[in-house]
């Protein structure tokens, strides 16, 4: 027997090149290595999904509305100035990249009109999922109840893949909620938007971890000026 034939199973000599030739190797080890790599990738993706991510909350007060007509408060319409303000704020939110995937809004006419103009100005607002919440109109007039109500409603309508939510409503509830979430004393004039941020694997976790006072105030958008950053230590005023 040729000595080269006994040098291990599956090894021979290539007649044309006289170089060692491996024959009869099964592709199973390659498949196993590929499968192992796929499992590692899946595990890495699962770990990333399980990590806390940034959750952004926009609290927007409706634009300026009119008192000139004898209408129910619920049916008041926006003024000319109010409509112009919405255009400016919409463009600023788009420029900053704060476009919500989910919009929860009071069903009052002035909030509906505010949203309609935003959707006309920025396609992202038109593509967002929208729900009109009738209780947003009434809860805003009740002392100390808006923040908890917003939290419950957001957790009810949100999904883990939604990272930015906008809630549209009224004072005094909206600036009260912004103040409670951040622990800062916040004033929201008409068509002002408070930009809040916290982290969590879900919205429920974000609220649980941040609690009241733990949301980071990233800024306030107004029609009359660019986004201005809030000096939290200076404005911090626990409520």
How would you summarize the topology of this molecule?
Elements: E1 11-13, E2 20-22, H1 28-50, E3 53-61, H2 80-96, E4 102-106, H3 109-121, H4 123-127, E5 129-133, H5 135-139, H6 146-157, E6 164-169, H7 173-182, E7 193-200, H8 203-210, E8 216-221, H9 232-235
Q: Any overview of this molecule?
A:
The chain has 239 residues and is an alpha/beta fold. The protein has 9 helices and 8 strands. The chain is elongated.
Describe the structure concisely for a colleague.
With 239 residues, this protein is an alpha/beta fold. The protein has helices spanning 28-50, 80-96, 109-121, 123-127, 135-139, 146-157, 173-182, 203-210, 232-235, and strands at residues 11-13, 20-22, 53-61, 102-106, 129-133, 164-169, 193-200, 216-221.
Strand order of the largest sheet: 5-4-6-3-7-8
Tell me how many strands there are.
Answer: 8
What best-fitting shape do the alpha-carbon axes yield?
elongated
Spans of at least 5 consecutive residues whose pLDDT stays below 50 are 1-11, 229-239
Alpha-carbon distance between the termini? 94 Å
Q: β content, as a range?
A: 15-25%
Query: Structural class per helix/strand content?
Result: alpha/beta
| Mean pLDDT across residues | 84
Assembly status: single chain
Approximate helicity band: 40-55%
Secondary structure tally, helices: 9
Rg estimate, integer Å: 29 Å
Order of helices and strands: EEHEHEHHEHHEHEHEH
Characterize the largest beta sheet: strand count, sense, and whether it forms a barrel.
Answer: 6 strands, mixed
């Amino acid at each position: 027997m040729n000595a080269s034939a006994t040098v291990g199973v599956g090894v021979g000599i290539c007649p044309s090149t006289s170089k060692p030739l491996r024959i009869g190797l099964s592709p199973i080890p390659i498949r196993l290595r590929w499968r192992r790599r796929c499992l590692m990738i899946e595990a890495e993706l699962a770990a990333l999904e399980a990590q806390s991510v940034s959750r952004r909350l926009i609290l927007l007060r409706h634009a300026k509305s009119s008192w000139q007509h004898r209408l129910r408060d619920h049916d008041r319409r926006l003024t000319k100035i109010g409509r112009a303000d919405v255009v400016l704020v919409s463009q600023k939110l788009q420029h900053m990249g704060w476009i919500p995937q989910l919009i929860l809004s009071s069903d009052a006419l002035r909030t509906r009109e505010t949203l309609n103009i935003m959707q006309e100005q920025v396609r992202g607002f038109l593509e967002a999922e929208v729900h009109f919440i009738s209780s947003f109109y009434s809860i805003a007039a009740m002392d100390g109840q808006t923040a908890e109500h917003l939290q419950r409603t957001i957790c009810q309508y949100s999904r883990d893949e939604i990272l930015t939510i906008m809630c549209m409503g009224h004072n005094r509830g909206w600036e009260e909620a912004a103040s409670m979430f951040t622990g800062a004393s916040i004033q929201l004039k008409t068509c002002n938007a408070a930009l809040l941020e916290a982290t969590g694997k879900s919205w429920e976790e974000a609220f649980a971890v941040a609690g009241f006072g733990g949301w980071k105030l990233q800024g306030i958008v107004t029609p009359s000026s660019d986004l201005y950053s809030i000096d939290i230590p200076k404005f911090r005023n626990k409520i």
